[in-house]
Amino acid sequence: MQTTGYNAPMPFHPPELATVLVVDDEAQDRSIHAEIVRSLGYAVEEAEDGRQALTKIETTPVSAIVTDLKMPGMDGFELLRTLSDRGQMIPAIVLTSFGGIGNAVTIVHDLQAFWYLEKPAEPAVLATLLERAMHYGELLRGTERLQRQLSQQGVLGEMVGSSRAMQQVFTLIQRSAPTQAPLLITGESGTGKEMAARAIHRLSPRSLGPFVAINCAAVPSELIESELFGHEKGAFTGAVGRHIGCFEQANRGTLFLDEIGEMPHNMQARLLRALEDSTVRRVGGSEEIRVDVRIVAATNRSVLGLQGEKALREDLFYRLNVFHVHLPPLRERKEDIPQIAKTMIDILNKKHGCFVTGLQHAALQRLMAHSWPGNARELRNILEWAVITAQKDLIRPAHLPEIMGTRRPSEPAAVERKDGAVSFELGRKLEEVKREYVAETLKSVNQDRSRAAQLLGISMRTLYNWLAESKQNARAAS
Ligand SMILES: Nc1ncnc2c1ncn2[C@@H]1O[C@H](COP(=O)(O)OP(=O)(O)OP(=O)(O)O)[C@@H](O)[C@H]1O
Ligand SMILES: [Mg+2]
Fold first, then answer.
1. Cα–Cα 20 to 30 A to 136, which of 216, 323, 409, 450?
2. Are residues 421 and 307 in the same domain?
3. What is the number of the ligand 1 atom nearest to the C-alpha of 191?
4. Alpha helices in 177-296, H assignment, sequence order
């Protein structure tokens, strides 16, 4: 160990080869701190500013960073923000000569720095913090290792899937989860977009914060602003009290914007502004409220569809599409069916108090032969039926519903149905035919509204409006 001019405390045993990167534009400060760190038994790398630090990190495995805050070029804030955006969780100790509690809170919370110290750092304090930083880094690596092992066995949070496609999805989720960057999840209805969003939240540093979900297609356009940003009492007719919007509810957590392609364009512009400024203003309010929210958006349109149909404003699209996770349809990864089915049967046994042990080979064959237009949600619905019907032992083909090629004892259909077609007698009222056609379409996709809207070639909003309208008409007629 080198000697120093400091009365350095006896170090704990720093992990061999642990490198600490000391970043400071002031040569004298840098060498003083580098010297302390070296005296504690660590290897030391030095950098003059954030940019040089990033280059060093690319070439040398760094266990902890000790950085100044104010530096020309890339400062300490930007360095930590860049590392956080990249998901590089290196514990950082921030040293600065101008302080204030505000800065400390921002650094420690938002930028996930490990600690905050006034310059010049006390060697004993720096020694203790570096020791803790090393333990923390070890914990992070251990958690990462465990997650990787689990995902290689086809499990990520509640999601299962060993197919190549799902392994790629898991890798992307793991890589993006620790960052603050927005995410866009695409995939047909029922492929697990919300499940993926929850997995991202759970694996992120925000996991202790709230996960708030809003379905942009299900909220009437005149209410979406108040749902997102909240409103003050009396802001509009019916605003009897103050309402806290999703953004504020999701503070320090994750906001899941489902069916983002269905959000009206003027609202998309407001959303973009909120994302850029990290502030919201309640409807009828004047205060700008700071929010710290990570956005995960989802759509069952393809990325090309989103752009081509102009469902999403281009500026918002680029803002959200920092990471793009695409969930492939189940028919393209049928090898996942046995594992997903097993997991679902376990869950459904618990839910319904049943003792089903698995699927008989012939029943599994039926599942493998099906095309799964409703994806994993349809699989869950079918297994729910089968688990309740079978109660115990193995699920046999007879336990599967009609749609899987066996008969289900059910009431006669309101219209004649045959091989995916429905026919209506001439002379029926158009309104009636429309209602029944929509009902049949919904039935064919296990009541999955977004898939039904896709099949009908209409937006989710139009479908919701139709359903509400026909309910009203039926009520009026009775
Ligand atoms: N990989 C998976 N492993 C286990 N279960 C899954 C998986 N993917 C989806 N599921 C199940 O499928 C169902 C539908 O998932 P989810 O609600 O996340 O789909 P979605 O893509 O958000 O659908 P929609 O577009 O209709 O909102 C859930 O009940 C979930 O339990
Ligand atoms: Mg969903």
1. 323
2. no
3. 21
4. 193-202, 221-229, 246-249, 265-277
Ligand 1 pocket, 377 CB below 6 A?
yes
Task: Give the DSSP H/E element, type plus range, for residue 296.
Answer: strand 293-299
Pocket test for ligand 1, best of 194, 262, 336 (most atoms within 8 A of CB): 194
The answer on pLDDT for 268 being more than 70 is yes
Q: Does any ligand 1 atom lie closer than 6 A to the CB of residue 192?
A: yes
Q: Are 225 and 246 in contact (CB under 8 A)?
A: no
What is the average per-residue pLDDT within 384-393?
93
Give the angle 350-353-354 at the CA atoms, nearest 5°. 95
Q: Between β-strands 355-359 and 392-395, what pairing exists: parallel, antiparallel or unpaired? A: parallel
CA distance 276 to 293: 11
Q: Which of 312, 328, 344 is at the close of a domain?
A: 328
Asked whether residue 148 is domain-assigned, the answer is: no
Is the pLDDT at 64 greater than 80, yes or no? yes
Question: Per-residue pLDDT tens for 128-155?
Answer: 999 988 888 888 877 777 777 777 777 8
pTM over 0.70: no
Q: Cα of 134 to ligand 2 centre, how many Å?
A: 40
Distance CA(341)–CA(367), nearest Å, equals 9
Q: Which domain holds residue 125?
A: 19-143
Q: Which two tokens stand for residue 478?
A: 């009775």
Contacts of 6-10 with CB under 8 Å at 24 or more apart are 6/35, 6/36, 6/39, 6/123, 7/123, 8/36, 8/39, 8/40, 8/123, 8/127, 9/123, 9/124, 9/127
Of 143, 164, 198, the position where a domain reaches its end is 143
- CA dist., res. 96 & res. 69, Å (int): 6
Q: Which residue from 217, 316, 313, 214 is spatially nearest to 262, judged by alpha carbons?
A: 217
125, containing H or E segment: helix 123-152
Using alpha carbons only, what angle is made at residue 292 by residues 288 and 293, rounded to the nearest 5 degrees?
115
